[in-house]
């Protein structure tokens, strides 16, 4: 049986990285744009990883094994 722990662990790591990106973005005229771009990038990468991981755990099409005699 698969575990939800890798998904939760990666969520915590992603949330921590997003917090770091929000807190340590250098000051300047484009601070909000850079912060938003970094946080959206991290969120998109996490979602792509999670969808791929979950699709491998629970495939929509079950593999069919051919039996050759």
UniProtKB/TrEMBL annotation:
GO terms for molecular function: proton-transporting ATPase activity, rotational mechanism. Pfam families: ATP_synt_H. GO terms for biological process: vacuolar acidification. It comes from Gymnopilus junonius (Spectacular rustgill mushroom). GO terms for cellular component: endomembrane system; vacuolar proton-transporting V-type ATPase, V0 domain. It comes from the Eukaryota. It is found in: Endomembrane system. The chain crosses the membrane at residues 6-25, 37-55. Belongs to the V-ATPase e1/e2 subunit family. Keywords: Hydrogen ion transport, Ion transport, Membrane, Transmembrane, Transmembrane helix, Transport. It is a multi-pass membrane protein. Its main location: membrane. This is ATPase, V0 complex, subunit E1/e2.
């Amino acid at each position: 049986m698969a575990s939800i722990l890798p998904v939760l662990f990666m969520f915590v790591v992603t949330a921590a990285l997003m917090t770091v990106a929000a807190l340590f973005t250098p000051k300047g005229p484009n601070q909000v744009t850079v912060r938003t771009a970094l946080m959206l990038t991290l969120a998109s990468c996490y979602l792509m990883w999670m969808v791929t991981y979950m699709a491998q755990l629970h495939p929509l099409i079950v593999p069919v094994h051919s039996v050759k005699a």
